[in-house]
Amino acid sequence: MSIEGILDKLLAEVPGAVGVSLLDDTGESIQTTSRNLPQGEMSTIGTLAEIQLRQLRRLLEAEEGERGTLVLEAENLSLLARQLVDGYVLVLTQRAPGTIAMTRRSLDRAALVLEQEVLG
In Å, what is the CA distance from 93 to each residue of 28, 62, 77? Predict the structure, then answer.
């Protein structure tokens, strides 16, 4: 499956999802898919999430190979950033109310597919 196909599927399966981005290890957007959100705005959200995820990782001094998910919640918006192999980051933005546990499972499934089929 293509990156675009994986992101489109994730966007469709998560209730309230408004955007999904795949970022490289420099924070640059490789692919962004959004619904009712300007493309530039989604890229900016993704880059900010990637920066926060790196800072959090440094603070926690995570073990090599350990990957985490950063969850930021605001009144009307949730952002989940999931680390992937080789520094890639998958970012999903969701309008509240959303079920974070369900969203994390969907994000984890999409991350696994990206790592197995695309990023290898």
Answer: 17, 24, 7
- The closest alpha carbon to 23, from 82, 103, 107, 100, belongs to 82
Q: Please report whether residue 39 resides in a domain.
A: yes
Give me the residues paired with residue 17 across strands. 94
d(CA 45, CA 54): 14
pLDDT tens-digit profile of 78-105? 888 888 888 788 888 888 666 777 888 8
Task: Note whether residue 120 is domain-resident.
Answer: no
The closest alpha carbon to 87, from 65, 63, 61, belongs to: 65
What pTM, to 2 d.p., does this model score? 0.75
Amino acid (one-letter) located at 113: V
DSSP H or E stretch at residue 42 = helix 39-60
Task: Give the domain range for residue 77.
Answer: 3-115
Q: What DSSP designation does 66 have?
A: -
Number of domains in the chain: 1
Q: How far apart are the first and last CA of the chain?
A: 13
Q: Please report whether residue 24 resides in a domain.
A: yes
Residue 66 covered by a domain: yes
